[in-house]
Amino acid sequence: SPFLKTKFIGHDILYYESIDSTNTFAKSISQNCKDGLVIIAEEQTKGRGRLGRTWVSPKRKGIWMSIILHPNLPPSEAHKLTIITASSIYNTLCKFNVDIKIKWPNDILINGKKICGILTEMNAELNHINSLVIGIGINVNTEVEDFNEELTKIATSLRIETGKFIDRKKLTAEILNNFEDFYIDYLSTKDIRPYLEIVRKNSALINKYVEIIKPNEKYIAKVVDIDDDGQLVIDNDGKIEKLLSGEVSLHNM
Ligand code: BTN
């Protein structure tokens, strides 16, 4: 693609008309492949979201891709790459002049509805990430008919929100360009704060009440901040708590 200006990410791309899930496939090959390999599919038959959810991935409507990386980082830093991914996608989508918000830890919303989800998965040893897979799903040209009734309430697409048909190839390249910029910079500085600043400034959650759903409890709390480690700081009835991105699901109130 003439739009791709990266140093290494996406120089090799495996492209599929149809696949079960780019993340599932990427995970299966990630231990023995080049840093920066990207898997792209026109359609996923078993697209996966966080917490075992399904990700609807209709043919030629969206960007369904996975980036494979081999960062020299401990597993505890993996969630920071989700922050880098979300902030770089935010930066890319800004040009569409719509109301874009980042919903910690891994969603991007337009006008309050989801247009992008990120699923970061890894193969790791105790102190070392062997390979990392960053799955990105963006509803680009998806139309209302492509969503089922339930999804229509919570999901949208760039097409629906801007009224324009969007070049997915160009957008994919722009996302990879932006992501690589942030990624290379982060690896050299190990400083996540510039990206957290983007997430904070454009947060869908800060100062809002959310329902927090954990494996065996559920409660409402107010989101106060996102701290410098990328944890969500909440006020639970006067008690300040911090949430790691791992096991919580959040519903806006
Ligand atoms: C979420 O919002 O829960 C995360 C959604 C992630 C979807 C993308 S689409 C490409 C990659 N392959 C998958 O099966 N999932 C991710």
The CATH superfamily title of the largest domain: Bira Bifunctional Protein, Domain 2
- What's the β-strand tally? 12
Which fold name fills CATH's third level, the topology of the largest domain?
A: BirA Bifunctional Protein, domain 2
What summary fits the major beta sheet?
Answer: 7 strands, mixed
Tell me the span between the first and last alpha carbons: 42 Å
Any low-confidence stretches, pLDDT <50, length ≥5?
A: none
Q: What's the mean pLDDT score? A: 94
- In N-to-C order, the SSE pattern is EHEEHEEEEHHHHEEEEE
* Hetero compounds: biotin
Q: Tell me the helix content.
A: 25-40%
Strand percentage lies at: 25-35%
What's the Cα radius of gyration?
17 Å
Written description of the protein model:
With 253 residues, the protein is an alpha+beta fold. The chain folds into 2 domains: 13-201, Bira Bifunctional Protein, Domain 2 (BirA Bifunctional Protein, domain 2, 2-Layer Sandwich); 209-252, Roll (SH3 type barrels). The protein has 6 helices and 12 strands. The strands form 2 sheets. It has a 7-stranded mixed beta sheet with strand order 1-2-3-7-6-5-4, with helices on both faces. It has a 5-stranded antiparallel beta sheet with strand order 11-10-9-8-12. Strand 1, helix 1 and strand 2 (38-41) form a beta-alpha-beta unit. The longest helix has 22 residues, at 168-189. The chain starts with 12 loop residues before the first strand and ends with a strand. 42% of the residues are buried. Bound molecules: biotin (BTN). Biotin is lined by residues 21-23, 44, 47-50, 53, 55, 57, 64-66, 106-107, 117-119, 135-137.
